[in-house]
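Quick illustration, no need to memorize.
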Amino acid sequence: NSTISLRGGLVTRDITLDGGATGWIADQGEMNKCTPPNPHETKFGAKNYGVELEVQSSQGECCGCARRGKSFPISGGPWAAENTKLTGVFNATRSDSPYGVGSFQVDLMLKGTRVAWGVYAAENRPNNNCALKRPENIVKQDSTFSIPFSSLTTSQFDEVRIYLEGYGCVITTVTAGLSGLQLVIASTVSTR
């Protein structure tokens, strides 16, 4: 869904990044892949107007990442990062273990190539084999976040990829969920 409106001299395009649990692809992240996978996905699905991933770890010899990702091509672009922000709500839980954290990653793509990324979590844990860069950017648990894409890059983009991630090691269960995702693109009004 997309709406276009005029706010204070800017044309804004609000795009709902939704679609429920359809189209989210499972993988082991980009580093420290384990055979067999550890942690492993135990649940994934629609929850509270968004999606939620649950992962479990059962050993500590190899500790990696379990995640689900979805691509959102943004028509009409490429778009300038400095005029764009992503808003939504993130929630995460973990069992009483120092070796688990739920996070999410936002990739900005241009013509199929990643031009920027950011990793976000509700807490800074000493371990997170899902995070390409440490420390993670912190967002408040169960509160609306706003991520200005200018904090990631000055480049343009035409696609947003979002990954829900769960890191776990030894014995732990982790959940990560996103809901209410909106992409807000603003541009100046043309007076032709």
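The longest strand covers residues 170-188.
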